[in-house]
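Human:
If only I could read backbone structure tokens as easily as an amino acid sequence. I am handing you a single protein, as its sequence and its fold in token form. I hope you can help me see how the letters and the tokens relate. Thank you; the sequence and its tokens follow:
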Amino acid sequence: MLGPVILAASRSDRMRRFVSAAPGTKQVVARFIAGESVDQVIPVVQDAVAKGLEVTLDVVGEDITTREQAFAARDAYLELIEHLKELDLGTKAEMSVKLSMFGQALEGGHELALANVRPVVEAAAAIGTTVTLDAEDHTTLDSMFAIHEELRKDFPQTGCVIQAYLYRTEADARRLAASGSRVRLVKGAYKEPAEVAYQDKAETDKAYVRVLRVLMEGEGYPMIGSHDPRLISIAQELARKAGRKPDEYEFQMLYGIRSEEHLRLAAEGHRMRVYTAYGTDWYGYFMRRLAEKPANLLFFARSIVTKG
């Protein structure tokens, strides 16, 4: 039951300082974070594309406390899009954004986040790619879905993320599984109360399959966000039963996790997209990766001992 403890620590400034200062942190962070700058992440994108993979890029950073930081986040994505345009990578790289990074939690945050994300979505469309709105904790979802609906009026390819461990998600999936929609399904990586989310892994896995079936049988484009071999096999079977061709859905996995599986799925003809995060404000993202899998935490602990 270490996951909830680690997720709680992801909000602790004291723990942030400790982890950041730990001798082995840099080595482990590099496993999950592809670089600190756009110049460092672009070669990673090029390497993935050369191997037959696609990517979704996330500029990490969620603890936005000022409007100026929200504007800077918008500008970081616009800079990324310019680099993708110059290198003709638009058709192979999309973007994932967290609306908290665009000011969603600030006063007037819904309107601010919409105003900040719209130029990013517009610029992405201009180079032949798109943006997916990442899901965050349950209190932000109504705002996220409303922004998603508004953006799709002009940019129907805009995607969104739903989280299997939330009780509401099956109903959300039925609403979203319409023609032209793009929906990424993940298990969920935030500390949520029992009133809104399954606490048991087995129940979450069952919910994942139920929701995935809804997406596969719908008219949209499912994006399967999972590293679980069993769920990947189930996804393939559901796609087959739904009569979906290989280009009518895709798998998504995190940079640095099960990299050989990325290549195996791509070699089999599946669309395989690697969720690739970069930036200097990596702490929240990094802690959620540790919480998702005990082996990640063990790897981190061993690195601290080795380097200490």
